[in-house]
Amino acid sequence: MNLQPIDMLKKYFGYSSFRKGQEKIIQSILNNKDTFAIMPTGGGKSICYQIPALSMEGITIVISPLISLMKDQVDTLRENGVNASFINSSLSSREVNEVILGAVSGHCKILYVAPERLEQDYFKNTVKSLNISMVAVDEAHCVSQWGHDFRVSYKRIAPFIESLSKRPVVCAFTATATPKVKNDIIELLNLKNPECFTTGFDRENLFFSVIRNENKLDFILRYISKNKNNSGIIYAATRKEVDSIYEKLLRKGYSVGRYHAGLSDDERTKNQEAFVYDDIKIIIATNAFGMGIDKSNVRFVIHHNMPKNMESYYQEAGRAGRDGENSECILLFGGQDIHIQKFLIQQSIPSYERQRIELQKLNSMIEYCRTTSCLRKYILNYFGEEYKLENCSNCSNCINDSELVDITVEAQKILSCVYRMNQNYGITLISEVLKGSKNQRVLSFRFNTLSTYGIMSEYKIKDIVDLINALIAEQYLTLTETEYPVVKLTEKSYDVLKGTKKVMRKIIIVKEQSITEDKTLFEQLKELRKELAYSEKVPPYIIFSDAVLTEMCKYYPTNKEVMLNLKGIGEKKYEKYGDKFEALIKAYVAENNIVANSIPLTTHHEVSSKSKTHMVTFELYKSGLSVSKIAENRKLSPKTIQDHLLKCAEEGLGVDLDSFIPEEYSELIYEKIRTLGTAKLRPIKEALPEDVDYMAIKAAICKCQLNKNVS
Ligand code: ADP
Ligand code: MG
Ligand code: ZN
């Protein structure tokens, strides 16, 4: 009997609904169309070719660039009861032969190969006897010189496919969306009239924050002291910084490892494995780290330094929360970061033209660090996507995660000291003067005679440095871009000195990133998972993802029916591990007198409404509250609530759009929409009577679009 894709999703992977785009992509492949899909990191690309592979006759060959990724995928598939294998340089020739035999005998459904294999005659000849129904190219951007991980052997893929006696359906997957790379992929892989899908780049479960005014190390320490049990990555710009953060955290007794190019291969592999296997919780790394890992339970990614562009940032930050559970991406921004990145660009790129491009990209990155509006919207706009909401309720600019402290007096002291030192020195010397240091340089310049000498003697030097950096970040001061950066006053400085402007400093409130209410059970389940992972020799998240454990902590499943209803438990997994987890939960429930929540019935297209803020609004709306009441209730602006309701309407939920469109003007509104188009709202607004508000226009546009989709 032929299972439908949705049933396979449940049977093999244990999920009961597809993520955005997956179903259409799968359908396109099953219709035998070449297919090209762009989805963000963690978006769920693998399933898009694995499910068709299972329903097609014959074998699927997956080209994948990294040995560790292949192993990870094959482990995952085997755990789910799918017969999959890989061929790469980590196998002996005997092992390779065994895999090939398995393929020829028709046992193996999915075969992962490294692109280099396609150059070997032996491989090419044996493969000719296989019934290949599909070739899936993962990380397809590797074929393009414009992508960041160009691999020469990816160019072998197209000729390899042409050499087969029957052309299989070909599909390609990537998270890189620049037009150049897109075109290269289609052309160089020789895709035939491909169906192209872009699912959108939003990762709703990620909380984005930029932290500007804090001492970076202090912040990291505060953060991880609250998040001891979570897995996380801390990226730093240089080896030296990695080492220094690593040593500090190690000394404080945290479970940490490090990763950078200065370590031996052995040590790097060892540290990476320890992280993947949850033996250490936190890894501190340069950006060389992460390419080869699909660890799904990374709960936070902290950038100790601003990366060079948004592409790198989103890729690195995107390693958080692949399992779909709430996770945090934190960028620590300091004035020095700009200086370092500019310097690196100027030093490392000889071509003037390329420098210019890189500097432009850097500027967008800096703007991200400085913007006060929604970070999610900024990211999505950067990648060419429209984000309809003004407030995502899930980034540091959309929710208030800080308290404000008045530092006007300190700022005045610092600014006047800079002024008295003729705006001619760096941060350290200024701090020493304010502190009242007797060091040689201070004395030799006779700064001890200034009226600002020692006026902050009660502070530690480090805290004065922090304050200066905070003022730089907020542009009350600026640093020159010279080899030895000098601190200068800005226009904003004078208002502070005159006493007409207050300076407030944001102090971030650090929270625990917790994905479950029942932490005790969660930790016990993690322990059990780890034991099983050891005996199975696979990483813990391959046994069950954090998302599955979270579900267990919510529904306390103690029988097969409930277990199989949880998202992420397929039949094979249940057979293998179900009883062990049931036993643990039974004991825990008995011991703590817990009455289990009943599990909601799942429908195929159910969207998890858990973390979706517009759904919270929708619930209130359904209960009859007005927009202003909902806004009050949720401490959000009425405009945000309206945006939420529009999103609900777009998703086909019952929102009465007409109630937002004043009847007497509705004809007129529709007419203006027709004649002026919907690219810009302002011209429409200006063409209408003043009492027609933006919401009326947006609601009308939304209605038009919904009608279009129906007809
Ligand atoms: P990508 O290759 O796009 O970065 P993966 O294929 O590695 O992403 O998938 C990321 C995670 O999402 C995996 O843990 C996977 O099991 C999970 N996942 C994929 N599809 C679904 C789905 N429909 N429902 C829930 N989780 C899913
Ligand atoms: Mg992938
Ligand atoms: Zn936001």
From TrEMBL:
Belongs to the helicase family. RecQ subfamily. Gene3D superfamilies: HRDC domain, P-loop containing nucleotide triphosphate hydrolases, Winged helix-like DNA-binding domain superfamily/Winged helix DNA-binding domain. Keywords: ATP-binding, DNA damage, DNA recombination, DNA repair, DNA-binding, Helicase, Hydrolase, Isomerase, Metal-binding, Nucleotide-binding, Zinc. This is DNA helicase RecQ. PANTHER family: ATP-DEPENDENT DNA HELICASE Q1 (PTHR13710:SF105), DNA HELICASE RECQ FAMILY MEMBER (PTHR13710). Its EC number is 5.6.2.4. Coiled coil: none annotated.
